[in-house]
């Protein structure tokens, strides 16, 4: 179509009639969207060849084409051409180039270019503030925001929301509220997304009451909460351990006429299962299946139930649940069961191969897959690989319980790295995981093998203080070590061998 128009243009020129600048610009605008190089050739040969240099609108079209194709260097050359011809680049041309710079991560260069502008407008500030927010350069973003307010401009709601998000991520929610109020007082638009950002910020800080107050405030200002508002609050209640409040909020949604979506179910199921209420989480899962069904790619709620069963040491029930998932997620379950089977048979290479294939295709392994692989790697002495899996497990929100840590502790002890094992026990406590007897027993055995009875004895005392009973391997190792350390015990005045035997009988 464009080529036909150009042919007509050539025909008109042959009859000595020159098309108007408006017609040239219209054709140029279409060409720019198709191919910037063709558009530039049209400008040079057709427009300039006809004695039409163009105006700022012409150069604006060319700048748009260059920036759309990220030819920023050519954009700057175009600016120089304009200035050399006495044409002052307008605000739109500058903003187009600014946007391209920010989109390509050159926000500092964009800020320098802004200084050349005679009359920056609200779009100018929106572009630059958004650029700084994308790079999380909060100070620069706030400085520009202040300048924006000083010049009488109000950023659009998208830009404001980006600033609020960066502030809230930095924990500076009170400042975010202040900016929201300033925008509103200057007649700017504030929507539900902006409010949700603030509410999410308060929820992250555990200030749920303030978050609820913000919901009431937005309602008073005529901005109604949506499903995302409720999802944020449910997530906040779950993170704060206020599971009853999370369930109440879930029920309030139905009362308020807000439909539950997948995120609602996913958030609440995960919160309940992580909080030790797997039975309640399973009920919500059944409700989800009845309400919105199950679709491929939405395996997370099911993995949350598996995680809940894992945390409650109900691995047999977890295996049954995993098997029953096959009707919804045949591929994922088939691979998971293959991994578990290979681990059980001690064929680590096959298990790791299926796992890698699963990850490569974007799959989400369940906590039991990680748990079994970690155990198998530790048995083979591959502790580095086991730790990598542990980290992946945590990244996916599956925090290990004692039985998973114990595999690593035993692995260290088998390699004679008892110091590492003890540090891992301490790390467990730091991660909120309470060590059990299985965490200490291999350490006691390993210390006794190293004939370090003093440390082994201290570990046993720690166990007894925590109400944990050493197993027969630990006691046996301790007695063997004791038989070689009787003189040391008596010199320390701790107790004699028969006292230790009595302690074993009592426990």
Automatic annotation (TrEMBL):
Which parts are the PPR repeats?
55-89, 90-124, 156-190, 191-225, 226-260, 261-291, 366-400, 401-435, 436-470
Q: Which UniProt keywords apply?
A: Repeat
Which family is annotated? Belongs to the PPR family. P subfamily.
* Name of the protein: Pentatricopeptide repeat-containing protein
| Naturally occurring in which organism (per UniProt) | Rhamnella rubrinervis
